[in-house]
Amino acid sequence: MKLSLEQLQEYNQSLFSSHQEEFGFLANQLSKEGNDVNGLVEKIKAFQIAVPSWALGAGGTRFGRFGIGGEPRDLEEKLEDIGLLKALTQKTDSVSLHIPWDIPSDYASIQSKAESLGISFDAMNSNTFQDYGQPHSYKLGSLGNAKKSVRDQAVAHNVEVIEIGKKLGSKGLTVWLADGSNFPGQASLRNSLHWTQESLSEIYQAMPEDWKLLVEYKPYEPNFYHTIIPDWGTSSLLCKSVGDRAKVLVDLGHHLPNTNIEQIVATLVYQDMLAGFHFNDSKYGDDDLTTGSIKPYQLFLIFCELISGSEDGAQAWESISWMIDASHNTKDPLEDLMQALEMISISFTKALLVNREKLTACQMEGDVVGAQECLQEAFQRDVRPLVKEARIQLGGAADPIGHYRKMDVRKKLIQERGAESRSTGL
Ligand code: PSV
Ligand code: MN
Ligand code: MN
């Protein structure tokens, strides 16, 4: 389904005067404090986040899955859903595909569909954590499997994913490895790391020169004794050994509880080693909850590190990829994604407001209280009118979820695709 632009504008018109009032008040305050409000709005407009193709249906857990109805049945419908998100939020303009779930049956039609919706192809994802009829099983690992034949097959799969991505105009390959072991003694810790390094190196050689390799880490699950790439340090070590276009991908859920993720980000940015982000949130583990729903302060602090790193010239902002990687078990995925996109924009905007000069002075003088005040001043501010203004200027909805509900989008998708339609994905 497609949203009517007229209805969207009509809806925006009904919210316009209260928005003007709120935005005017904030803009006035911010300019008095010396901020360039137009510059801020432009930065918010430019910050776009990719949506993965697997996030558009109900995710479920290993105990069950509750369908949402109207889920996209194929790649074209997935693109249509991202098109809806784009029209409403103006915060996403690309999709990240997972192979083999999303192999295009007709490249020309997929490309023209994406083009008509203004969507490009972000990093490609390979899949060696499942069996899908290939000759050798991945039960005991893929790129780090003890058997060379399995490793070769996993490398070949990644090379095939690169070839698919090349046809679509993607510029990156994301590798997330489920490889590891469930029990002590099951696998050689050292050899499995070595084999993984060899396999990654072969994959790297197969990438075009303008591509990057995003290497994701995860401490546990699906293996519970050891994971071959458990942390940013191991990922970084592997990346450095394969080539300078291989960098570390940080998925917010892939840390043990209470890990200082902003410090990891600062360290990676310091080394120009950050490939990108998978946004989500968690209370306990890789919960894949809505970004910003559990730890909004952490998200803000992460953005503070990213912004200061790029402003200080440690790592270019444009070299970092942004994506949501969450699972939707109880919410409508499209509404959930809209909430995530909003929270990401809000945290980004708050971090832009930190008075960095003042903060640095506090750090140099050892003014601990002053430093905390600097951060709190930005974090406690309600920046929603700024984010809304950026969205309206780009032609999006003043209140994306409000409009989505008013237009009965899910009901229409169910009519179109059926109540039992099921999307491929996690
Ligand atoms: C599994 O933990 C995971 O969420 C990884 O984060 C990957 O990025 C994603 O699945 C898709 O492969
Ligand atoms: Mn991820
Ligand atoms: Mn994950």
TrEMBL record:
InterPro entries: L-rhamnose_isomerase, Xyl_isomerase-like_sf, Xyl_isomerase-like_TIM-brl
SUPFAM superfamilies cross-referenced by the UniProt entry: Xylose isomerase-like (SSF51658)
Bilayer-spanning residue ranges: none
Domain Xylose isomerase-like TIM barrel: start-end pairs: 108-288
Entry keyword set: Isomerase, Manganese, Metal-binding
Superkingdom assignment: Bacteria
Any matching Pfam family: AP_endonuc_2
Molecular function in Gene Ontology: isomerase activity; metal ion binding
Protein name as catalogued: L-rhamnose isomerase / sugar isomerase
Source organism (scientific name): Algoriphagus halophilus
